[in-house]
Amino acid sequence: MKRILVALLFFAALIAVWDLAVRSGRWSAVILPSPVYVAEYIWSALLDGTLMESTWVTMKRLLIGYVAGVIIGLPLGLLTSTSQVLEDTIGALALGLQTLPSVCWVPLALIWFGQTESAMLFVVVMGTVWSVIIATDHGARNIPPIYARAARTMGSEGFHKWTRVILPASLPFLVSGMKQGWAFAWRSLMAAEIYVTILTGFGLGHLLHYGRELNAMEQVIGIMIVIVLIGLLADRLLFSPWERFLHRRWGTNVKAT
Amino acid sequence: MIQAAPKLVIEGVSKWFTPARAMVHALDDVSLAVAEGEFVCLIGPSGCGKSTLLDIVAGLTRPDEGRVLADGKQVVGPGQQRLVMFQESALFPWLDAFGNVMFGLKLRTDLTGKERRRIADYYLELVGLKKFKHAHVHELSGGMKQRVALARALAPDPQVLLMDEPFAALDALTRDQLYDDIQRIWMESRKTIVFVTHNVREAVCLGDRVVLMSPSPGRISQVFEIPVPRPRDINDPALGSYAYTIAAAVKGTMARQGAVSE
């Protein structure tokens, strides 16, 4: 309760500083809109449905792209961790491409797929898959070898060993890898949506882009806030339960309470 | 003394390792027979190949020469008949104590779920951790972890228990308690135990026989019988003279090899 109060106070103070800056009159309202206008924009966009619709479009792309990225990346990461050949080939490729900012995939995606949903998904998958491969590979390599030895003496081999020992043992790394993959997917999708206008759906990135074109700063800032809130929410819903499970089981992140 | 065919036969086992610089002759023509229900301790300075020998008996490592027979059959890989307990507990942190004991049991296809749970409960009680059934691994002390590891190794009912310095990382008081426990459990279950240690007093307290190994190359240099009745207390003066003799022999092997003590 106290923690919530502290957080609330902090953000209230932040908004107050923003409001004071607007009231000082140093900047024009076009450049720095008042928090009230931004709140009004978010409210009206909520009421007329544009916000819900864009959020839905964006989340759909994000989820499909992210899930595809994880489904491709997870087994590849496990494979590169076990085979020297795959590590030197796919592993090296992943390491290289992970350093490529995902927005760099946009021109290629446009030429290959045109202004379509596929272009969007391609960018998200490319943004996700490499970091998932690397995190999974890293995780599987960092499992204490004693676990595998103990499992072997108890007769655990092959598929059983992979699903009951290697996978759960690398869970801490997998979760942080998936979290990183999620952040990468989110970033690449926003880049793609700002860059590319496609007619099959206007996502949050498009709203941000049009805000700039219309010089509607309250829209730009309003959408930015929505994007941040979605990011926080996703973290809470998707990853926090896993992290809590890991901390409880592995005894990490123990705080004196 | 024992007439029946030995439980474990180690026949002319040799092993070489090739690390970066030179070839290491880890084991040289080691032969040993262990009778059913016998408690054998392997002792020797570090580098004498005692842990390698245990790995070979477990089937985790293949010998370069020679073979290991368990119940007359050649060992070609690890199996539930010969379970290993390591110096680290190697408990799985994603499972609770009960889940860890269940791990090996779940690989026994001849049991029903109900039987597995009953067996796991039985062994947790045997090692005195019934109350900690659902404790997470990190919540257990070092000694409790090794008790769970012991329950996990015993639960699938192996014929042979291989223990690789299982108490080396524990404090002295916890260790003394575990000596009592392991003897009690051994006398009840009559498993065949091969126990690797570098602690002479531990070896004479636990073993029917103490097998002394010498390093580079790893060989069996002497075998000592310990005919002291059980249960034995680690501080029993009767054990002292055996410990004294063996400690002197250990020093001898180290001096002869010019090895540096730990």
How would you describe the overall organization of this protein?
The complex is a heterodimer of chains A (257) and B (262). By secondary structure, chain A is mainly α. Chain A has one domain: Orthogonal Bundle (MetI-like fold), CATH 1.10.3720. Chain A has helices spanning 2-23, 35-47, 50-82, 84-98, 105-113, 117-141, 145-153, 158-169, 171-195, 204-213, 217-250. Chain A is globular and about 75 Å long. Chain B has 262 residues and is an alpha/beta fold. Chain B folds into two domains: 1-81 and 162-262, P-loop containing nucleotide triphosphate hydrolases (Rossmann fold), CATH 3.40.50; 91-157, no CATH class. Chain B has seven helices and ten strands. In chain B, helix 2 runs parallel beside helix 4 (142-154) and helix 6 (200-206) packs across helix 7 (237-257). The longest helix of chain B is centred in the last third of the chain and has 21 residues, at 237-257. The radius of gyration of chain B is 18 Å and the shape is globular. In chain B, 42% of the residues are buried. At the A-B interface, helix 7, helix 8 and helix 11 of A face strand 6 of B.
Briefly, what is this?
The complex is a heterodimer of chains A (257) and B (262). By secondary structure, chain A is an all-alpha fold.
Task: List descriptors.
heterodimer, A: 257 residues, mainly alpha, MetI-like fold, 11 helices, globular, B: 262 residues, alpha/beta, Rossmann fold, 2 domains, six-stranded mixed β-sheet, four-stranded antiparallel β-sheet, 10 strands, 35% helix, 24% strand
Chain-wise SSE layout:
The complex is a heterodimer of chains A (257) and B (262).
Chain A: H1 2-23, H2 35-47, H3 50-82, H4 84-98, H5 105-113, H6 117-141, H7 145-153, H8 158-169, H9 171-195, H10 204-213, H11 217-250
Helix pairs in contact in A: 2-11, 3-4, 3-6, 3-9, 3-10, 4-6, 5-6, 6-9, 7-8, 9-10, 9-11, 10-11
Chain B: E1 8-17, E2 24-34, E3 39-43, H1 50-58, E4 65-70, E5 73-74, E6 82-85, H2 97-106, H3 113-126, H4 142-154, E7 160-164, H5 172-189, E8 192-197, H6 200-206, E9 209-214, E10 219-225, H7 237-257
Parallel strand pairs in B: 3-8, 3-9, 6-7, 7-8
Antiparallel strand pairs in B: 1-2, 1-4, 4-5, 9-10
Helix pairs in contact in B: 2-3, 2-4, 3-4, 6-7
